[in-house]
Amino acid sequence: MPVKSDICGDEALNGSVELMNGIMRRKLSLLYEMHGLSEQAYGYVSEESLEPLGNIIEAKQELIREIDQLDRSFLFEFERLKSDLGLSSMEDLKKPQNPHLRDLQDNSAEIMGLLNKIDALDVKLNQGIVKLREDIAADLSRIRRQKQVSGMYSSDGERQQKGEQATGAGYGPRPAGGAAHVFDKRN
Predict the structure, then answer these.
(1) In this model, does residue 31 exceed pLDDT 80?
(2) b vs e for 118-149, b when ≥16 Cβ sit within 10 Å of the residue's Cβ?
(3) Residue 154 has what DSSP assignment?
(4) φ, ψ of residue 151 in degrees (nearest 5)
(5) Helix axes 50-85, 11-47, angle to 10 degrees
(6) Which side of the chain, N or C, has fewer Cβ within a 10 Å radius?
(7) Is residue 56 within 8 Å of residue 40, measured between CB atoms?
(8) For residues 157 and 124, which has the higher predicted lDDT (pLDDT)?
């Protein structure tokens, strides 16, 4: 659907589109920051550095919250623009003559490209985190087994010493049946 030409030169339209471009430029800035954080996070996963990785994840969450807010603002303005221009989507803007609308398309294309890069990095990051988690689980399992084995050796040694002391005191082994009988020494 072609853009209504009588509205393209309108100052209100230009103001609305420029506001949307400002929102998109801010979003791009945050996305570039997020891309950098994703690259850092991948490096920390490779080094198995968990604390800085947690800090990066928190920073990315904050960026996501801010981007969500920007997206809400953008969608509000975009709905107004679609109504003013009679558009159903951004794709309806084939080759707009208005430079603000061209910037809007260019910003949108750059955002989509950057989102794809971040997504590809985050897939690798998630794979690295899964591997790191598996490695940590294997280490914990190995430590538990070693602790159990170590506990068995020290328990056997303690039991043997306690058994010798108990036998020496004249109590002897417990009777069969699992019940501990109390003997009155006066009888």
Answers:
(1) yes
(2) beebbeebeebbeebeeeeeeeeeeeeeeeee
(3) H
(4) -65, -35
(5) 160
(6) C
(7) yes
(8) 124
